[in-house]
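User: Sequence in, structure out. Go.
Assistant: Echoing your sequence, followed by the structure tokens.
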Amino acid sequence: MKSKLLFLFVLAIFMTSCSQKEMKISRSDYSVETEIDDFSPAYILKNDEGETELLQNSLIGNTNWVLSVERDLTLSEVAPFLQELTEKKFQKDGVHEDTKDIYFVYSDTLHQQNAYVKLPFKSVFAEPRGMMEPTEYFFQLIDLITDEVSGLKDFKQRFAEAVENRESYEGIIIDFSDKMTVEEFVNILIEFERLNISDKIVERTFIY
């Protein structure tokens, strides 16, 4: 409860001092997590000049990073920042591994509370998969591929078709259309939790 109140307090100060208007975060009708301990916040939003920017001055290593992102932004606008954040958190060279995660905060409008969903990807690339040279291991591990999805409805349809008549699969490769809004993206992450497949998602994704 303390962590939730602290986050709301920090968010309120940020909104008052930086934008003088309410940040419109993503919405859902389901709470994945309602409490996050040991976290630090970051924000992705449009500034007064209409440019998308990442505010990350409060991020602390080896804490959970909680992202507040304007829901109407497209993935093309936020993908470079997600790539930057995942590289900063998970691709560090050195002896100290960061064992914490990255979360999105969103509003559960049904239960009238803020909630959190984990970003399952340790690497986010703001470019097509074909632009990268994947490792042999990457493809040997997987036998179920869900191609680029354009929204929540598209994901549900593709996933249902992919798993139809399958008893098991090793994992899921999934990429995203950069035209998708942040709110759709967050709801797909929530759907991973509803379907209990978060541990099946390959930790590398491409947004294009």
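User: And one key feature?
Assistant: The helical segments are 2-18, 75-90, 136-140, 152-163, 182-194.
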